[in-house]
Design a protein that fits this description.
This protein is of the alpha/beta class and 280 residues long. Helices cover 45% and strands 14% of the residues.
Length: 280
Amino acid sequence: MNTEKTGLVLEGGGMRGLYTIGVLDVLMENDITFPYCIGVSAGACNAVSFISNQKGRAKRVMMDYISDKRYLSLSNFLKERSVFGMEFIFNTIPHELDLFDYDTFLKSDCEFKAGVTDVFTGKPAYFGKDHMVYDSTVLRASSSIPMFSPMVEIEGRKYLDGGTSDPIPVKKALEDGCDKVLVVLTRDRGYVKSPEKLKGLYHRMFKKYPAMIDLLDNRHNIYNQTKEFLFDLEKQNKAVVVAPSEPLKIDRFEKDPQKLEEVYQLGRKDMLNVLNKLGI
């Protein structure tokens, strides 16, 4: 993998991100690094702990606080219009409770991109390390799920979940010069995304942002077409895809520790199988 520029691409998925964490922990245990990493939503959050080489941190952040109402609860929605406690996750945890190693992250040779969605255009935008100098606002924006989280303002623009407009940012990785990619999905290979169910709700909520309405109307097509593109890359030996070997029996808001641990262990198992196939 080191003879070419190989990028690491991480899908989001809320608590399904425990699968990705299992994958990344195996990579760290085998001292496998990448010159480039891009993620959206939970994928971006997990990427930064991987780049800072803080093995175990991403899992702790999810598992240790899942029973804490400040992390995930309806009471958060009443306080800050987000089911996930955004202030707790992106300020209290990394800066007070389980410190994120910004210094190692910023000094790393790995180029990092976090994908977000511009609510004015409905198009993806990307931020690098220069927007993460001892600050995690970009990660907060990338993880702000439409209808379940408020918009996040950065430099006068408003953003939401990067997975909405670019759910698997493999094309951006190629545009940024990657010859090959290792892509971690949080849905099994056979998953086909259906149209959004809350159409009436988001049409009302985003009436001032018609591009977001168009995006959400078409979100399932973007996702399914991106997966087709990815699998074509795989056939051309330009991509290695790590995907759940069985459908994950949790959603993005799962709080059951046992189910989350099973997802983490599946990620580990699937990544180890891929390493064996690659002869690593």
